[in-house]
Amino acid sequence: MQDPATFEAITKKETGNWSSYNVRPFYYYWSFFTQSGLWTIPAFISLLYPYLKNRVRNKKAYRFSLLWTVLAVVLLSIIPEKKSRYLMPVLIPLSINIGFYIEYLIRRFKDLKDKKETIPVYFNFGLIGCIGIAFPVIAYVFLKDNLTGYWFWYVLASIVLVTLGILILMHLKKKNIQQVFIYTVLFFASVLLTALPLSNAFTSANYKPISTLQEEASANQLKVYGFNYVSPEMIWQFGTKIPEIKNEDNIYNFPKENTFGMLANGIDPEDQKKLNTLYTIKKVATYDLNKVAADSRSYNGRLMCDYYVLTRK
pTM for the full model? Predict the structure, then answer.
């Protein structure tokens, strides 16, 4: 409402990308139930309509959530542009579907004799319990050289997850699925609260956050600009807007300041030549938000920027 022209331009560009950017085959989303992580097995079973239709209490509600899930996947599959994160809306009805299956297990699991029904349950929740118990060993093996400053979180996470892992296995043995379900939910919540901070210990040698740059630039009375492309993650960590020197139409808008800072993710030869004619360029630092090594397959080049100080000639 405040800037309709820009809004319209962005909308046209994004809708244009639907058919030309990140195009994937129609079946790209067919493994969508795996997006539920360790709930993958219950998610898959909850989609087996012939199996579950006569086991749920409310068949009409179950049919509704199942159709909602399937139709959402089909409609997303029709659009050529596909990304895993676009499946987020599918996880809402899928979680309802899983709820129908869990409710059935709470009611009937103690009476189930067919191993085809019991083995997936034992495997799914047993795996979660075992992960909890094994967490201290696994975490130490991967983090033993980087635990300095993280021992509190390591010990806390180990105590909590081992305790919950034991409780899950104990109640699973007693076939008390309601308690197993409750402890599983607590397990995931505990991972987020106690184990997630340990992810910061996985930083590689090339990791260098940009969070201090704004303060350093202000201390040197420098305004920071971007050139060609600065990732949203970089801008977010920087803490404020980063004006662009060169826009999407390849039009230069050089700063009025005689000296300024510039972030750039690579500069092509033509742009380098243009900048060299106007400025003396000094490379100061490289900021890299990747927590994996540069030779890793998970390394993302767009999360890296070189920082320069430019002075007008």
Answer: 0.73
